[in-house]
Every structure is written in structure tokens, then in C-alpha cells.
Amino acid sequence: MPPKRKQPVSKAPTAKPAAKRRSKLAKENDISAEEEAEIQEAYNIFRQDPEEIDSKDGAIPTADVRRCLIALNAPPRDNAELKELIETVDPDDSGWVDYERFVAIAALKLHARHDDPDAQNEEAERAYALFTRGQERDITINDLRRVAKELREDVPENVLKDMIREATGGGLGGVNMEDFEGVMTRAGVFG
Where is this region: Disordered (predicted)? Predict the structure, then answer.
């Protein structure tokens, strides 16, 4: 009897998780699977039960379109844009927006959010002001302590110091706006 062949040693799978596949709807609207998941999560917050609205899949009320876009951090610029978006997603004036139509406008708003540097700057300035309570100064470790306490997060002192060092490139001084934008970019908040 011939000797048994040794099976080749299989290599351990890489630690990189498999990328989520984009749905047909995501491809049609040129969004990633992650962006679609973000849209669906926001949509589901406002979605009404199918039995309540006599629909197979449920829908959101047109009155909640603005709130849903805000949840995506992609609010309409003004009431005129909101009206235009609602006319687009609810052309029959039924008062309801299905998921497929909502994805289309949410994708447009997400693309606009990523493509507009002014919107990114405004977003960074608003977030920065939350730490400094609107004062024109650097973010300090005391600001981080206060925010952690407000969020009821128990963050060790050494972690707070590491956050400051990460933002400033090693020092424990204050975090200026440029440092803060750098942190947000590295964290993936900005495209």
C-alpha cells in the first residue's frame, strides 16, 4: 500500500473580515454597504409598523424625513430643500416614504456631505464648540473630563491624557481646531 500523502498545511485565514457586499439598491445609489446600513438604521428608527399603514414593508411619515436625515448627519440646508426632497420621495402626496425612495435622497445627501469641505468644516466647528462650550480656546484635559462625565463614561485619567497626546502629536497642551480636525479625519468622520 502506498504511503498516505500529507495534506498541505492550510494557512490561517487573515484577520481581515470579509467586506460586506453591496445590495442592488446600494449599487444603484453609489453607496457603500456601510453607508446603506447607516441609512437603514436611521430609517428604522422612524419606520411605522406595516399593519398600521396598510403597507407590506412599512414606511416613514413624510413629517419624519427631516429628522431621519438629521439622524444621518445630513440635514436639509433649508425648508426649500426639505420641500423639494419630500416632493421627490412622496410624489403622490400620500404622507409616507418607502425605504427605496428614502435611500435615494439619503444617498444624495451623504454624497453632498462628503463632497462639501465647507460642511465638514462647519461640522468640525460645531463638535469643537461642544468641548469648549462655545469659547474661542483650545480643548483641555478638563474639557475631556467634563464631557466624559456628562456622557456618564468612566474614562481613566491616563486614557484622557493619551487622547490629548494623540491629538497634539505628543504634548499635553490644549487641542486646537487643526489638531481636532486631524483627529476627526483619522477617525474616519471625514471622507
Answer: 1-34
